[in-house]
Amino acid sequence: MRHRSSREPLTLDVPTPLLHLLYLRALWGLDVAPDVPAAVGQPAALPGTPRPREALAPEWDARWADALASLGGGPRPEPWWVARPDDVPDPDAVSAWASGHAERVARAEVEAVAHREAAPETLAGDAGAGLRTVLVLPLATGYLRRLTPATVLVAEPTRADPCAYAAALARAPRGPDHLPGRHHDAGG
After folding, report:
1. What 8-state DSSP symbol labels residue 31?
2. Tens digit of pLDDT for each residue in 54-103?
3. How buried is residue 92: exposed, middle or buried, by Cβ count under 10 Å (0-12/13-18/19+)?
4. Segments making up each domain of the chain, as ranges
5. Closest by alpha carbon to 156, among 130, 134, 185?
6. Rounded to the nearest 5°, which phi and psi values hold at 37?
């Protein structure tokens, strides 16, 4: 088992652009990114959408791809409501939901650190070796996607279950052909 050294700090973060898109996907009832589970605490779908779903879905997909690319070092996309203010009825609600998730992840990590000897990435052994950044999403079921050899996007339930996390990390491809823009889901 490889143990994380002090020279290998781990960053735990919440990808705000993806959170905004998960919220909007639920709000508009879009059938996009079917491999990404529903978010916890997401809004109920509105009875109508600001534009036809056929127009929103391709733009959502493009923004999702841009947001994933930004996690790998690309430019950070602007929030949807900046480019199309008429599409989002309550940007503050979107931001509040995303902020609430970030606060929940931070609190959970503080509590977890107080009750365990090692981070989940260390407990995952060789499967967690080399990770530098863990991006946590509030998804209802298991999900893990390796964005780069050192970065994963993971659902809260997957990271909270050491066995499921280690198994998902072990299944996630590590090579350079699995960077943002190329989909490889390891489940969880």
Report:
1. -
2. 889 999 999 999 999 998 788 999 999 998 898 888 899 999 999 999 99
3. exposed
4. 11-178
5. 134
6. -60, 165
